[in-house]
Amino acid sequence: MNPSALIVVLLACVPLTAVAELREFKSQKGSTFKAEPLVVRGPNVVLKGENGRELTVAVKSLSREDQDFILRWMVHEPKALSYSFDCKSEEKTGETRKLSSRLGKLEATDKSYEIKINNRCQNPIDDLKVAYRVFLEDRVADTGMDREVGVIWKGGLLDMGRLTYNQSTSITTGSHAVQKATPNSLAGFAGVDVKVKKDQMRGVWIKFYRHGVEVAEWKSPGVPKCDWPESGSEKTALETDRENNAKLAAEAAAKGKPVAPEEPAAKPEAPKPVSSDDLPQELKIFELEDVEQK
Asked: Per residue, what are the HEC states of 70-104?
């Protein structure tokens, strides 16, 4: 049995169920079937048929029109890719400053995290952004005295640009001023605990966004149990990303729609091949094959 026939058999072997966003796909051999694209993994796409069954097929086994549809869907649909990242954080120590305190020695040392990120997704990823939250257990007041222990955070949103498969990169977070207080004898007279007190870094939490939509996250050990701290400016930036992508997707869809001729042509024209030069950079990992015209 050829692969095209196998696709049809597998998609028709159980009762039909309701599926959203069904599209009629056509194989290189001419067989047609209705399915919903779920995710792209390397040169393959996972399709969900009318019967609810999932099937993995090579993108190049589809018709040229469907290849173009899948590849452009992959560009504009944030969750079209099977995201996977290997992450590792390392605490970085910066400048140490002496602060004024009548109760002893008070120092503040800048500490941040360097996060190494490796793209284990089988596809290159464009328009990737990373948001981070760095947590600090705040134990020391600016006077060097005890304070009620609380956790504070700093955050940021970084543009990662493009990551190819197995490409590694590093980001550095913003820093906290980690304070250390060494009380003197005056502290004891003032009724202050004379033990050394020190703030403590509690780890880093990162989220990955594509086209303004969250697609993955990672936490280092020690991150406190809490909800993701929101940032107004970050939320606005991500909403702008989503809106811009929606406009680009609409323009791409409109551009790809065939225009019906006013009068039927005497002989149908052969479909115009899609040049790989016209595709975004991230689509050029696929070896597109022309459909044989008969």
From this structure: HHHHHHHCHHHECCCEEEEEEEEEEEEEEECCCCE
